[in-house]
Amino acid sequence: MIRLENVTKSYSAEVVALRDASFDIAKGEFVFLVGPSGSGKSTLLRMLNRQDRPERGAVWVAGRNIVDMPPGRVPHLRRNIGNIFQDYKLLLEKSVFENVAFAQEVIGRPPHVIKQQVPAVLDLVGLAGKEDRLPDQLSGGEQQRVSVARAFVNRPLILLADEPTGNLDPATGEGIMRLLDRINKTGTTVVMATHDQRIVNTMRKRVIQLDRGVIVRDQARGVYE
Amino acid sequence: MLSRIRYTLRETFDSFRRNATLTVAAIITAGISLLGVGLTLLSQHAFDNLLARWEGGVEMIVFMNPTATPDQLQLVDDALAAQSQFIAESSYCDEACSLIEADRIFAGEPGVRDLLTEDNILTQYKAVPTEDTDVELLRQVSDAFSELPGVYDVSFAEDQISLITQLQSFFGFRLLLLSVFLLLAAILLIWNTIRTAIFARRREIEVMKLVGATDWFIRIPFMLEGLLHGVIGGALASVGLWAWNSQWTSGVQNFPDNSGFSALVVVDGYDKTVMLIMLAIGALAGAIGSGIAASRFLDV
Questions:
Q1: Could you tell me if residue B123 is inside a domain?
Q2: Number of domains in chain B
Q3: How many Å is the Cα radius of gyration of chain B?
Q4: Are residues B120 and B65 in the same domain?
Q5: Global pTM value
């Protein structure tokens, strides 16, 4: 599903975000990216949805090298990738329903499909009955659930999560992880950058560890260390 | 398709509402500048009315008495033909032709125009000189026509139109220059309004990009917004132009007779053409301003 081949990305001569990174992620895998701040986790995630491009190397997503993908094709790539962020990136003036529907609306899904799929995904993330609330009327955990619903509503092949539990207390974070695990079990590949040692150690999924842009460990059913 | 149109319209009008102050400023500036363009075109057309009888390079007109007989007309026709070394071509403007001209010349004095009929209007022979003939030379040979029977008067373009053309060129150029600067200001203001709108919605745009919206899908509501700024500005300018032209046309009728302003009105429907031109320029200015902004600032 995802393959990196000798990917190098630097922001300046001194700041190398990724150095010669290579790995494969199969369809349906759940992978944690771990490492200290500045180790290249977020850069790696940005490469996977073509927000960023490497100087060298190839990034294969769903069988296509996306490094040289024409800009006009990038939106179609992104329709197969869901994104979850630490700060949720919700639209504050839109309701829960509208935030999730927005992801379908902007790619031209017809209204009857939106009316059918949005309530279903809100039910999946445990927000049934809160469709009309505004984001600031929700707790942090609920806001992140809206963000997960928005990322998953188009049934993407891949879900990229950048520190999704970073702003949440441990109990709420566990709830979000259960949700991501459930989504992963539907066949969606999940790649998650995190600092949360407890979550990584509890879930025992594949762990790719980065240090100053270099992959220093790639371990199946790994722990944080 | 319908849902995309609905989305585009909703986002466009939402942006209008959120950005109300800048939007109003952009529309007013566009309106004023387009009014300037419209007034320039309208005043040029009004000046053209004054010059109506001198169109086509005519430098000399031999006015014939309404009572002139066919023989007298033929005599003048022959005399003009005899001066072929000075006169390249001449044409006769009969009663019907002269009345049509009077419609333009006395557009602002319908009372005077109503007094003119086929029985009392002066008909005219219009002469275009050869390239080598200057007006002074033409003036010297004009005696050959002025003393012929049936001739009322001989007029020269130089005497009548030099002041008018000077005024036309003075006002035309300066008004147009001012309008161009104002139009440029309107484009910049529309550009800035759209840039601000994009900045205000940067989070939304970021989300849209991440979920796979195309750049055009994101861009179109902003471009439509700029286009509407220009079109609404053009519509305001059209209302202003209509009000100005109506006031001026009715005001001119109260001016003293022979004040020279009677022809400086536009009553032949040209003002409608100018309004369409203003709407088109407004739409173009809006599209340019917003198109540049939406292309340059979409990377939020």
A1: yes
A2: 2
A3: 28
A4: yes
A5: 0.70
Q: Cα separation of B132 and A20, whole Å?
A: 84
Residue B299 counted as domain residue: no
Whether residue B87 is found in the same domain as residue B191: no
- Chain A residue numbers with beta carbons less than 8 Å from the beta carbon of B203 are 89, 91
- A-chain CB neighbours of B214 within 8 Å are 72, 75
Convert the pLDDT of each residue in B173-231 to its tens digit: 887 888 888 888 888 888 988 888 888 888 888 888 998 888 888 888 899 999 999 99
Nearest by CB to A108, which of B4, B204, B208? B4
DSSP state of B58: -
Same domain flag for B41 and B176: yes
pLDDT at B262: 67
Same domain, B152 and B167: no
pLDDT in tens, B80-89: 888 888 888 8
Separation CA A224–CA A211 (nearest Å): 13
The DSSP symbol for B253 reads T
Substitution target in A73, A80, A88, A105 with the highest count of B β-carbons within 10 Å is A105
Tell me the shortest Cα–Cα distance from A223 to chain B, in angstroms: 30
Structure tokens at B115: 């007094």
DSSP-derived 3-state class of residue B65: coil
Give Cβ neighbours of residue B102 (< 8 Å, ≥ 6 apart): B113, B116, B121
Interval B138-189: pLDDT, tens: 777 777 787 889 999 888 877 666 677 777 778 778 878 888 888 888 888 8
B chain contacts of residue A111, beta-carbon cutoff 8 Å: 3
Which alpha helices (H) appear in A92-169, and where do they start and end? 96-105, 111-124, 140-152
> Which own/partner pairs from A124-127 qualify as long-range (CB within 8 Å, at least 24 positions apart)?
A124/A149, A124/A152, A124/A182, A125/A149, A125/A152, A125/A179, A126/A175, A126/A179, A127/A96
Segments forming the whole domain that contains residue B83:
52-160
- Report residue A181 CA to chain centroid gap: 13
* In the predicted structure, residue A2 carries a pLDDT above the cut 60: yes
State whether A107 and B4 contact (CB < 8 Å): no
Identity at B285, one-letter amino acid code: A
Instruction: Judge whether A150 is closer than 8 Å to chain B, CB to CB.
Output: yes
Indicate if the pLDDT at residue B63 is higher than 60. yes
Contact status, residue B213 vs residue B205, Cβ threshold 8 Å: no
Cα–Cα distance list, B77 to A163, B25, B208 (Å): 98, 62, 79
Rounded distance between C-alpha atoms, residue A85 and residue A62, angstroms: 22
- Per CB-CB distance under 8 Å, the chain B contacts of A102 are 207-208, 211
How many angstroms separate the CA atoms of B210 and A80, rounded?
Answer: 10
Examine the domain organization and report whether B201 and B56 are in the same domain. no
Cβ–Cβ gap B208/A154 under 8 Å: no
Contact B207 A89 (CB under 8 A): yes
Nearest-angstrom CA–CA distance, A128 and B254:
75
Provide the 3-class DSSP secondary structure of residue A23: strand
Q: Do A91 and B204 touch (CB under 8 A)?
A: yes
* Whether residue B166 sits in one domain with residue B154: no
